[in-house]
Amino acid sequence: MDGTALVFTNGLLHTQHAKTAHGLIRGTERFKILGILDQVSAGKDAGVVLDGKARQIPVFASLAEALEKIEQKIDFCIVGIAVAGGKLPEDFQATLKDAIRAGLSIVNGLHDFLSEMPDFQALAAQHGVQLIDVRKPKPTSELSYWSGRIHKVTTPRVAVLGTDCALGKRTTCRFLTQAACAQGLRAEMIYTGQTGWMQGSKYGFIFDATINDFITGEIESVLVRCFEEAKPDIMFIEGQSALRNPLGPCGSEFIISGQAKGVVLQHKPSRRYFKGTENFPVEIPSVKSEIELIRLLGAETLALALNTEGLTPQQAWQLKMQYREELGIPVILPLEEGVDEALAAIRRFFNI
After folding, report:
1. If you placed Cys at 7, which of 67, 80, 185, 203 could pair as Cys (CB 3.0 to 4.6 Å)?
2. Phi/psi at 261 (nearest 5 deg)?
3. Taking the mean position of all CA atoms in its chain, how far away is CA 1?
4. pTM of the full structure
5. Domains and CATH numbers, the chain
6. How far is CA 45 from CA 32, 35, 85, 284, in A?
7. pLDDT tens figures, 85-144
8. How far, in Å, CA of 149 to CA of 128, rounded?
9. DSSP string, 205-243
C-alpha cells in the first residue's frame, strides 16, 4: 500500500463523472481511503451514496474539515473524477493547491498534467510533495511493439468488454478476479485505465495514454509479463469504451492482439445512445449483434453482465430472463447478485 488518501470529487460524487472515486470506494489495495471531499454529499457514508452499502468512508464538505477531523497522517489527495476529454475543471485547482500546502501529494488521473503546470510545480517543490500524473504517456523508448510473443502465453484470457463506456466493465472485471481467487484460482486482473492502477492491480497499462502504434505491443507485453511472473490460472482484461463507440472504438485489440478467447460483455439496458453523442445521437447496437461481432473477431461471449441503473428491480429481473432466453448464455447482475454464474461458465469453457 502506497499510503493514506482523501478523494476529491467536488460535488460530483453522486454522478457518473466520479467513477474513479466509485472504484476506490469499492476497494483498493494501493491506498487506504480515509474520506471523500464532496460538499453535496457531505455528512454521509461514501458507500451509501454510491450504492446504499455503508463502507465507513466519511464524506467531508471541505479539505479543511477533513484535516481537522482525521487524526491519521494523510499522504495523498486523489482527483476522483473522470470526465470527457480528461480536462481538470477550473474549480478543482484551489482545493488541490490547498492540499499541497497541507503536505499532501496529488494523484491525478486526468489528461491535464499537474506536473507540467508551473504554479503546481512550484508549489509542490516548495512543500516537498509529489505530483503523480497517472495518465502521463511513457516515452516511446519504454514502449513495446507487438512481436507475436503472445502465442507462448498458455493462460486463458477473458476480456471484459462493454456496449459503451462508463457502465461498469472495470468493476465486473475486478469482481471476477476476486471471485476466481476466492475459489482457489490464481487470477490476475489486467488494468487498462487509471482507476485500475489506483486500485492496486499489479499488471496493466493506461490505454488512452499510450501512442496508438504501441497499444497492441503494450497489451502483449503486459500479458506476457503477467504469464511469466505470476503464472496465473486465468487473466481478466479490463476493457475500454466499446467496439462500435464512434468517440473511440476499442476492444478488438484485446481479442486480436491479446488473443483473449473469452469475453464477458457488459451492457446497460437503460442507455439508448452512446455516452457523449446526445447532441448527435448514435444508437447503441443490439447485444445480439455485438456478440456476433465478437465471434467474428475470434472470441466467444461467455456471459452478459447488466448494469441496472435506471431500472426497477422487476425490470432488471425481466431483462435478465429475456436476454438469457434470447442469447442462451448466463446473464448476471454483478452489483446485486455477484459474478459466480459467469465465473462458472468461464471455468467450463476453459476447463479450469
Report:
1. 80
2. -95, -10
3. 19
4. 0.95
5. 3-133 (3.40.50.720), 142-350 (3.40.50.300)
6. 15, 9, 29, 34
7. 889 999 999 999 999 999 999 999 999 999 999 999 999 999 999 999 999 999 999 999
8. 42
9. --GGGS-HHHHHHHHHHHHHHHHHHH--SEEEEEP-SBT
